[in-house]
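User: Predict the structure for this protein chain, please.
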Amino acid sequence: MAVQHIVSTLFVCFILLFIFFIRPSNKWHYLSISNIGTSHFFVVLITLLTVVLLCILPMSLSPYWNGTMIYRADKQQYDRMGDALLQGRLYIDNNDIDPALEAMENPYDADERERLDIKYHWDEAYYNHHYYMYFGIVPTIILFIPFKLITGQALLSYQATQFFASLIIIGLFYLFYVLGKNFFPKFPFSMYLLLSSVFSILSVGYSISAPALYCTAIVSAVCLMLWSIICFLQGAWFENDDTRSTIYLTAGAFLGALAFGCRPPVALANIIIAAVVYQLFKSSHFSVRSKIKKIVCLFLPYVVVGTLLMLYNYARFDNVFEFGQSYQLTLADQHDYGSFIQRFNVKQILISSFLNFYAKNDFRETFPFIWFNGVFVNFPILLLSVRIFSDEIALSLKQKKLFFITVLMIISTIIITLFDVHWTPFLLERYHLDFYYLLCINTFIAIAVWLEVISGNRKKILLCCITVLAFAVLAVEFLFFCIPYDGNYTFWYPEVLNEIYRGLRFGL
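Assistant: Here is the predicted structure, written as structure tokens:
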């Protein structure tokens, strides 16, 4: 009954908020972001805190991910990796390797392992008689080890996801504010609140129900890349002081480089550094010598971090480019994938990429009556991200010196998709988190420019349409949370689905 009441309360709040934002007479539609006062900042703070809690509290519900089930060593690889590093080793096994696994001709053959009933560590990399973590080492270094050294306790993976997801939400609220203040001073306060909230939830959405391990890698990388973008904007677009600009740019490059040590596909968004370099060359605030110094500071962190990651890879797998994916013990024999060139199939990649964005709508026979589909099928509002290519909006973005970076974010999305499609045996919804935040940023910018170039009734209609599309995101994310899948809350407690459904019907 408690779940039913909570759902009914949330549904009532959803309806009331929808009515509040959809009203043409909403005063916040006519309050520009550049004119908000202290009371409005208080509203932003309350909204930000609410969104953070709505996203991170449900992460603790599933016993599969929160550590309350029988201890799952494979779900705590980051902590075990931290222990290994503190003990001076790079492998995470404790001499518990099944001799039958070592005797296999091909230990990466999942069917053969099952046939022989071999015990093994699920989803860990196995190489030269040791288990290794194939997830990036950076979260372990920057969070898990410091937490253990300070508290003496192990940090669970889902708790790390909560931490990084909170920083993503804070980052998006901040990024949209500085974008509005510096480039779109007439942007409506109502749209700032709504889009900041909706795009924050969308950017971390899948991790809410399945937060540990896989999503820890993705969300940590997204967090670092998002704050890297914020630093780049501060250093190259907003900051005129030479020293502070250099500090921001160096910090942005360092964060972007670290993202490779969390999840490499997400870090491919670092191609936006081309727009940063271009903006520096165009800037009239810095001398030629200062610009050269800044560019050196931009690339140096990538060289340093990249070298360290390559040495780490070589020390484990005798290959500077091998993070461990080829040696995974999972459902697919990724060791047998062959090289990039051997597996490259243009037709298959193009088809899979198309389906990644436009997979047909699929429904379930029972509540929640929905399934995971293509990006633009699930969230049509993200289609607005490509509005940056329309003549009027593109011209405005060029005048604001934002067009190049927005184009690179679209290109990053495509490259990340191609990478995921090529190397992933199964294309899952959680992989969309690799680039959702990029599409969200571009969609925000496209909407902001669009609202600048239209007026009157057309603007009112656009505000109404954006509101409907934004609230549709919240509805879809809620239904996704309800799908029994990937060891989430409703997977282990399917009886809760009936209570949720009754809650949406107010007990009827």
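Residues 288-317 form the longest helix (30 residues).
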